[in-house]
Design goal:
The chain has about 140 residues and is of the alpha/beta class. It is about 35% helix and about 20% strand. It binds 1,3,4-trihydroxy-5-OXO-cyclohexanecarboxylic acid.
Amino acid sequence: MTIAIINGPNLNLLGQREPGIYGSDSFETFFGQLKARYPDINFEYFQSNVEGELVNALQKFGGVADGIVLNPAAYTHTSVAIGDCIAAIKAPVIEVHISNVHAREDFRKLSHVSAKAAGTICGLGLDGYRLAVAHLLEKKQ
Ligand code: DQA
């Protein structure tokens, strides 16, 4: 089983970036733990700060992965292109947010992704990625 994890802008700074909101673990540390927990899953990982590169990655993995775990970060709230892409690809996409976007500024309550995603997990920290992987695995079996 192949699962792609795609992270949007500024998520390369996890661990240093606003740790009170996003925690103090880097994504690399967390990702190592996730891979160790699911040794039978082939994980692909992509992070970009550039909207079009995220669309390209969604198109690429959308045809080959069994599922995609996507945190579009700030593009969640602005990107019609990412929403359209999710609707266009085959693989189910689970939208993940580390923070509870509904408990923050009003502009974070709008998502161009949620209506196109298979589901959304938010506010559970990095554990949201694990829960999304567990769900995709469960669905596949
Ligand atoms: C985020 C929430 C977004 O509003 C924000 O722009 C991010 C991260 C999250 O994981 O909580 O960069 O997607």
